[in-house]
Amino acid sequence: MSETILEVKNIRKSFGRVEVLKGIDFSLNRGEVLVIIGSSGSGKTTLLRCLNFLEEPNEGEIAVDGKTIYHAGNKMTEDEIRLNRLHFGLVFQSFNLFPQHTVLRNVTLAPELLALDELKAACKKDRTRSFKEEKKKICAEIEENARELIRTVGLADKMGNYPCQLSGGQCQRVAIARALAMSPDILCFDEPTSALDPELTGEVLRVIRELKNSDRTMIVVTHEMEFARGVGDRIIYMADGVIEEQGTPEEVFDHPKSPKTQAFLSKAIK
Fold this sequence. Notes:
Radius of gyration: 20 Å
CATH class of the domain at 1-87 and 215-270: Alpha Beta
Strand order of the largest sheet: 6-7-8-3-9-10
Number of helices: 9
CATH topology of the domain at 1-87 and 215-270: Rossmann fold
Strand content: 15-25%
CATH superfamily of the domain at 1-87 and 215-270: P-loop containing nucleotide triphosphate hydrolases
Structural class: alpha/beta
């Protein structure tokens, strides 16, 4: 029996008078790939940003592994928000790499900062522990893991390069490695190929397919319909801020029930 890792209930989000999300409900099983499709303005990116706590929903609940991490009306501290974000890794459309750092440093920076903050707190509580000695060991482990992740996305020969020396597809693969370095429960992709030239799209989609084969739990927002059909275990079609239809790739792509889904797919699949 599949284990539910994420539950989203009645998520609503407005910007001023414009209601972008109008009550979103879905669940996600561990190891499942959920693909979200829909026209621009349907609320797909806003939903991902709410899950990653880059936006705060006006209503609703989010639970990970049976624990409620967000309930509208309960004010969270910055520390709580930061901890909740660790459940999710987000790969942005535009990479958002640090231009002043090498590929390797882009991947090691965030996990190193988090680990050293935790180590400082632990050493304050236990004065017998040596921050300097443990820091060296922790940083070495983080770097080893980062090197392996960079190899996994096919960039072993680019570890010392800077983002300006990489193609768009290579930058996006670094962004994927960086997200994986934080060991998130759920990896989220927001239109991972939208900023790429067509010839570079394939290399990024190939990495995502390989992550699926390793049972990685993922939510992917994409406009690539063939890819959505091939990689998704379940498809959600969003329209006008609601989930218009959801099901298996076969159900949504081959036998859509909603006229809105039918109209969207007739234009999106050529």
